[in-house]
Amino acid sequence: QVQVVETGGGWVQPGGSLKLSCTASGSRFVIYDMGWYRQSPGKQRESVANTRVNGTRTYADSVKGRFIVSRDNDKKMVTLQMNSLRPEDTAIYYCRVRARTYDQVSSYNYMGQGTQVTVSS
């Protein structure tokens, strides 16, 4: 099993910044993709940013130029630096880790419990 824990949510005024962190832990596993999803009330969960094991990064159009996703493979950690935040960025942010434990044939998505980000004045 792989455990995923997010930290760093909170409240910020429009135009402000927040940084989310996520760490994956467990026994003997290989990580592939790491990234972030978010879900606002009444909306479907959407992908915000993703990093592949080769370093490729992708972003939702709505956050390009404002958010930066980074990963540290040694620490099994992914972060999301969110700048120029807008009220529409308000959501629960979930970390997603695509991983395979040594006793599994296939990889699976592991999600954290989520962390609330609120952008308002």
List keywords for this structure.
7-stranded mixed beta sheet, 121 residues, 4-stranded antiparallel beta sheet, elongated, mainly beta
Tally of helical runs:
0
Distance between the termini: 40 Å
| Average residue-wise pLDDT | 96
Helix content: under 10%
The dominant shape is: elongated
List the helices and strands and how they pair.
Layout: E1 2-7, E2 10-12, E3 18-26, E4 29-39, E5 46-51, E6 57-59, E7 67-72, E8 77-82, E9 91-101, E10 108-111, E11 115-119
In short:
With 121 residues, this protein is an all-beta fold.
Please give a structural write-up:
By secondary structure, the chain is an all-beta fold. Strands 2, 4, 5, 6, 9, 10 and 11 form a seven-stranded mixed β-sheet that branches. A four-stranded antiparallel β-sheet has the order 1-3-8-7, with no helix packed on it. The mean pLDDT is 96.
